[in-house]
Design a protein that fits this description.
- The protein is an alpha+beta fold and 249 residues long.
- The chain folds into two domains: 196 residues, CNF1/YfiH-like putative cysteine hydrolases (4-Layer Sandwich); 38 residues, no CATH class.
- It is built from six helices and 13 strands.
- It has a six-stranded mixed β-sheet. Strands 1-2-13-5 form a four-stranded antiparallel β-sheet, with no helix packed on it.
- The longest helix is centred in the N-terminal third of the chain and has 12 residues.
Length: 249
Amino acid sequence: MSAEWITPDWPAPARVKALMTTRRGGVSLPPYDSLNLASHVGDDPRAVAENRRILRRHLPSEPLWLTQVHGAGVAEAGRDAAGVEADAALARAPGQVCAVLTADCLPVLLCDSRASVVAVAHAGWRGLLAGVIEATVRAMGIGPARVIAWLGPAIGPDAFEVGEEVRQAFIERDPIAATAFRPTLPGTLDGAPRKWLADLYALARLRLQALGVEQVYDAAGCTYREVERFYSYRRDGRTGRMAALIWLE
């Protein structure tokens, strides 16, 4: 099976190139089958290296692989070295490839409508709360009206259960974030829910809208539900990682 990509459906300039991998088309054995691109999850390093070689054939250069820590750090291609601790990356020169790895967290691809800069962010709930989207848009250094965003496949709003402390943390920062949570069955004596279903897409859109970014598009698909197509840490625990990548041609 050849490697499978998802190409963003968004009105990016022709010079902006982007893709997101699925789990299909690599050489890793279960539970990492098959196109695992992460070197930190316990997979055979030789398999990861071969999977990256498969991907590399479709790219203009080696991606700037990050050490992701669920924070808001932003690396810059051409300035920072591979392995830098960050959860987002940007590039301004042609051929520099930015990448993040995900397996339920939300990958956010960003570009300038004038094709002067591209970026990608790893936006799980911790990263969203830390402000990774805001930090990335700020680092791009352009007006929000020129930013185009694409939200890639992530765990869907019917599968991502979180505790009350997560919901409260978002609401304390922005009361409107309450609209991105739905209660599960009541679990306390007074009928209040112990758990909530969180919508990462809605939370990301709220952050982008607050910044003034109006051009926001998203992909269909739930990493948790689509077992054959996507890795999901919440579903499987021990599993691989997909990559979301973007560059200027």
